[in-house]
Amino acid sequence: MTPALNGQLQTIASGTGHLCAYVKGQGRPIILVHTINAAASAAEVRPIFEFLSQHRAVYAIDLPGYGMSERADRLYTPRLMTDAIHDLVRHIQVVHGHEAVDALAVSLSCEFLARAAAEQPAHFETISLVSPTGFTGLKLRQAPEGKTYGLNLLWKLLKGPGWGLAIFNLLTRPSVIRYFLNKTWGSKNIDEEMYRYAVWTTQQPGAQHAPLCFLSAQLFSADITDIYDRLKQKVWMSHGTRGDFVDYRGKQRYAQFANWRFTVYQSGALPYFEMPDQFSADLLQFINQA
């Protein structure tokens, strides 16, 4: 199988295990963080990676449990994913110096990026959130810091002999992966290259471990409203109008925050695949103005 992205694959020194990122381009660095699902990888940010690498040094991470990073049998949590982003930033600082980076994340990974930026605000210049979680409805998610929605009993059940792997195999059949991508796009006009890589990556050893934590809600933060509230950087939130991910009523809370701005695309949850030129121009304008 060809690599997820057309870039140099680098191994990052990390306390989260064997951590990898694709790197391409020159200039001030920007980080890209893929979504979390059963078939996730850096392949999900390919259009942004290709565009931005013409202007900047781009680092597209494979989060722990996904892509070419370590897929150990362990509990995957927001803390683990956030620490992986911190480790990537430290690696970038060694290569590029200590200037703050720009960063973009998609879907659930927006929560990990936001937490990293709240914990180390000096490390991040701008934050771009594409179809972020934590904005469904008007409910505020203000649990004690670090608390998740994790269902430990369900996770232990999924870890039992055979059950979890059987469920994972069912959810990652090619026809099922296509079904969920159709729901993400809100149409059947999905990106076929991304689909092919998604099928391949789910067939690799250990591919089930992180997704089983995702299925048992271990990766969803119950305190994420407070984390978003703490962001001091310039924040750009964008999302589409089609598919299963269209309820962002919670963004009303941030309409009065001077550092937040919003863009809505007539697209599915990954607008940069459907409207690459417009999305890329908007993103570049945002990070350059900031």
Q: What's the CATH H-level homologous superfamily?
A: Alpha/Beta hydrolase fold, catalytic domain
Number of strands: 8
Helix content: 25-40%
Quote the CATH topology: Rossmann fold
Distance between the termini: 38 Å
H-E order: EEEHEHEHEHHHHHHEEHH
Report the uncertain regions. none
Q: What best-fitting shape do the alpha-carbon axes yield?
A: globular
Which band does the percent of strand residues land in?
A: 15-25%
State the strand order across the main sheet. 1-2-4-3-5-6-7-8
Average pLDDT confidence is 95
Number of helices: 11
Give me the Rg, rounded: 18 Å
**Which CATH-level-2 architecture?**
3-Layer(aba) Sandwich
Number of domains: 1
The biggest beta sheet is recorded as: 8 strands, mixed
CATH class: Alpha Beta
Structural class: alpha/beta
How would you explain this protein's 3D organization?
With 290 residues, the chain is α/β, with parallel strands linked by helices. The protein has one domain: Rossmann fold (3-Layer(aba) Sandwich). It has 11 helices and 8 strands. A hairpin with a 6-residue loop joins strand 1 (8-12) and strand 2 (19-24). Helix 2 (78-96) packs across helix 3 (109-119). The chain is globular, with a radius of gyration of 18 Å. The termini are far apart. The model has no long low-confidence stretch (mean pLDDT 95).
